[in-house]
Amino acid sequence: MLIITGYVRVDPTDVAQFLADLSELAIASRKRPGNFAYDAGIEDPITGRLLISERWADQQALSAHLAAADTVAFVARWQGRMQGTVHKFDASNERGLMDR
Q: How much is the CA Rg of the chain, to the nearest whole Å?
């Protein structure tokens, strides 16, 4: 499994539109094969900082998502207006938070 997580920042005046656009993308992304989760949340509306969290079955599923027309269009629409650091992690041995 791959975990994608990090922060994105947009101009505070663009937060509502960014979230609206991202919400549309999230609805489609959650239906894609190999997607386990696709979420974002506002961490600081004053600075426009958002937390990004995704889980994908494997690189093939993530690559298909990144190549999808709606993902490409979203990135093109927001490129230059969003900044941040989002990383990809390989994960194994998934278990409950309180499990050892």
A: 14
pLDDT tens by residue, the chain, 100 residues:
999 999 999 999 999 999 999 999 999 999 999 999 999 999 999 999 999 999 999 999 999 999 999 999 999 999 999 999 999 999 988 899 899 8
Model confidence pTM above 0.85: yes
> Cβ neighbours of residue 95 under 8 Å, at least 6 residues apart?
none
Closest CA to 1 of 31, 30, 37, 25: 37
The sign of the dihedral angle between the CA atoms of 62, 67, 73, 77 is positive
